[in-house]
């Protein structure tokens, strides 16, 4: 099986990224792996879709770090192949990272992911649904019971009224973006700076004002869902608690947050179950959700991270069941040729 991983660009990849861990596990299980970036697609005059792919070296890598080093060595050695040679295309880019500097590439994975699916490639997550999730408005399609009160606007007066209705303590963040960029906690101690916060966010688009969930003081829980259900091995879940650094509300690991082991309780499982139907209907194979109390703050359907940290904290390899699930999807596609569309097959 050939699995292609679509990423923003090779220079921004890292040995500890979830993509690296998954790619390494795929090679460990005997599959071929290649990387594709936004500028690598080519549609020829015969309407054949090709990609300029970077293939992982044939030599086995004992660790994800060693695999990543091997990939760096072939960074500029692209090989042109017909997309139909690819069995699975995993869309692992974060569109928000390219929204400002390279807007042309923001939705390239979605556009050519659709074209690849039309040519028989299994595309994960489903590109049609990803097109609806390219900004945080997708979050509003989940049940109200799992969402904190949310306002989306570009008017400062709306935000101020919302803050007043919620006791003056709210979270402000951009509608588009990730990684904890431009996220502010508004409270009594900095309410006088609200105008500057609003201006900083609305300069680039719409603003999300969200009711503050007190449980956030203890950090949030990142939980991986696969095929709509919590990813687990035995009784161990692919999850961790992310605690923000001192004087910083952002719990994202690369924004200074710290990862800790966490016990998944019936409360978190209930939250996951409430959003499962939507994820299944949308063909969202691998998703990372951020839970605070009984609410979800984020649903990452593009490039959920921290899988390696989850594995280390639990003492198991969560990449193994993920690749195994992909293998089964390819088997199903062969057993029921043409019976299922990409969205349905993605979560089988």
TrEMBL record:
<dbReference type="Pfam" id="PF02951">
    <property type="entry name" value="GSH-S_N"/>
</dbReference>
<dbReference type="GO" id="GO:0046872">
    <property type="term" value="F:metal ion binding"/>
</dbReference>
<comment type="pathway">
    <text>Sulfur metabolism; glutathione biosynthesis; glutathione from L-cysteine and L-glutamate: step 2/2.</text>
</comment>
<dbReference type="InterPro" id="IPR004215">
    <property type="entry name" value="GSHS_N"/>
</dbReference>
<keyword id="KW-0317">Glutathione biosynthesis</keyword>
<keyword id="KW-0436">Ligase</keyword>
<dbReference type="GO" id="GO:0005524">
    <property type="term" value="F:ATP binding"/>
</dbReference>
<keyword id="KW-0464">Manganese</keyword>
<dbReference type="GO" id="GO:0004363">
    <property type="term" value="F:glutathione synthase activity"/>
</dbReference>
<dbReference type="InterPro" id="IPR011761">
    <property type="entry name" value="ATP-grasp"/>
</dbReference>
<comment type="similarity">
    <text>Belongs to the prokaryotic GSH synthase family.</text>
</comment>
<dbReference type="InterPro" id="IPR006284">
    <property type="entry name" value="Glut_synth_pro"/>
</dbReference>
<keyword id="KW-0460">Magnesium</keyword>
<keyword id="KW-0067">ATP-binding</keyword>
<protein>
    <recommendedName>
        <fullName>Glutathione synthetase</fullName>
        <ecNumber>6.3.2.3</ecNumber>
    </recommendedName>
</protein>
<dbReference type="InterPro" id="IPR016185">
    <property type="entry name" value="PreATP-grasp_dom_sf"/>
</dbReference>
<keyword id="KW-0547">Nucleotide-binding</keyword>
<dbReference type="InterPro" id="IPR004218">
    <property type="entry name" value="GSHS_ATP-bd"/>
</dbReference>
<dbReference type="GO" id="GO:0005737">
    <property type="term" value="C:cytoplasm"/>
</dbReference>
<keyword id="KW-0479">Metal-binding</keyword>
<dbReference type="InterPro" id="IPR013815">
    <property type="entry name" value="ATP_grasp_subdomain_1"/>
</dbReference>
<feature type="domain" description="ATP-grasp">
    <location>
        <begin position="136"/>
        <end position="327"/>
    </location>
</feature>
<dbReference type="Pfam" id="PF02955">
    <property type="entry name" value="GSH-S_ATP"/>
</dbReference>
